[in-house]
Amino acid sequence: MALKFLVVDDSVTMRRIVLNSLKQIGHEEFVEAADGREAFTKLSADDGINFVITDWNMPDVTGLDFVKQVRANPKYASLPILMVTTRGMKEDIVEALQAKVNNYIVKPFTPQVLREKIEQIIATPVA
Predict the structure, then answer these.
(1) Which of 2, 49, 52, 78 could form a disulfide with 126 if both were Cys (CB 3.0 to 4.6 A apart)?
(2) What is the pLDDT of residue 82?
(3) Confidence (pTM)
């Protein structure tokens, strides 16, 4: 299955790092957004997006708020979401998992770690 990623981060540099990492591991289709509000608009407008990678710390609508908004919509109940953030405290990870992110990476990361997390998410059946 070809994946089309929605990459959400307010940092242009971080989006480039994520996109370059995705390219290194063989993925070629991306949509970018700078915050949760823009991300939800782009997700709603593009039925081809089938995987989300989002930061947590963003102005306006945070990544966590974006995840909650996505999960509140039955259309996106099984959409894979990977959070990639600097927030590495156990409480943060628990909060993100309670919001129903599928997996979590603390920055910085390597393309190999990104590949492993994406593969874990894809291999896990939707509950």
Answers:
(1) 78
(2) 98
(3) 0.95
